[in-house]
Amino acid sequence: MTTQSGCNLPEDLFYLIEKHVWARPAGDVVEVGLTDVAQAMAKKIISVALRDAGKPVKKGRSLATVESGKWVGPVPSPVSGEVVEVNTALASAPSTINSDPYGAGWVARVRCADWDADSADLATGARGVASYEAFLAEQGITCAETS
């Protein structure tokens, strides 16, 4: 894992940088969540409203709505497909996104319709992390520990 400006950025994930979401493919299912950058900017997450499993989702459309004391906004999907599972544990423990954004804080799992097409504009690997680092520097974004 790379750390830039205090933000954790795993090299094995695919990032939709401008929207601060990540994707982790496993076969035809893609796990999706908010990045460490997103949770740091939002501060303590107090509520998560999840989309229903079984519903179609288009790339860039909302999988969930996240609320913090500072912000309310969507969790856009980095891929198109069908929502096959949502992280219902977030309903009772939404701050898991703060404490473990790349693990237990995942938001949804989507059966991807066309991974090759959808992943073409996602950043990954060392080059992806470098792109995200450049974005953070350009925007003046840093991560700080949340409580």
CA-based shape: globular
Count, helices = 5
The total strand number stands at 12
Element-level helix/strand string: EEEEEHEEEEEHHEHEH
Query: What is the CATH H-level superfamily?
Result: RNA polymerase II/Efflux pump adaptor protein, barrel-sandwich hybrid domain
Q: Percent helix among the residues?
A: 10-25%
The largest β sheet comes out as: 7 strands, antiparallel
Q: Round the mean pLDDT to the nearest integer and report it.
A: 91
C-alpha Rg (nearest Å): 14 Å
* Widest sheet: strand ordering: 7-10-11-5-4-3-12
The CATH architecture can be given as Beta Barrel
Query: Could you say how many structural domains there are in total?
Result: 1
CA-to-CA gap between the ends? 22 Å
Estimate what percentage of residues fall within beta strands: 35-45%
Q: Which structural class do you get from the secondary structure elements? A: alpha+beta
Unreliable spans? none
CATH class: Mainly Beta
Q: Kindly report the CATH topology.
A: OB fold (Dihydrolipoamide Acetyltransferase, E2P)
Q: Which helices and strands, and how do they pair?
A:
Elements: E1 2-4, E2 7-9, E3 14-16, E4 21-26, E5 29-34, H1 36-42, E6 45-50, E7 56-57, E8 62-68, E9 72-76, E10 81-86, H2 89-92, H3 96-99, E11 108-112, H4 115-119, E12 123-124, H5 125-139
Antiparallel strand pairs: 1-2, 3-4, 3-12, 4-5, 5-11, 6-8, 7-10, 8-9, 10-11
Can I get a quick summary?
The protein has 147 residues and is of the alpha+beta class. The chain has helices spanning 36-42, 89-92, 96-99, 115-119, 125-139, and strands spanning 2-4, 7-9, 14-16, 21-26, 29-34, 45-50, 56-57, 62-68, 72-76, 81-86, 108-112, 123-124.
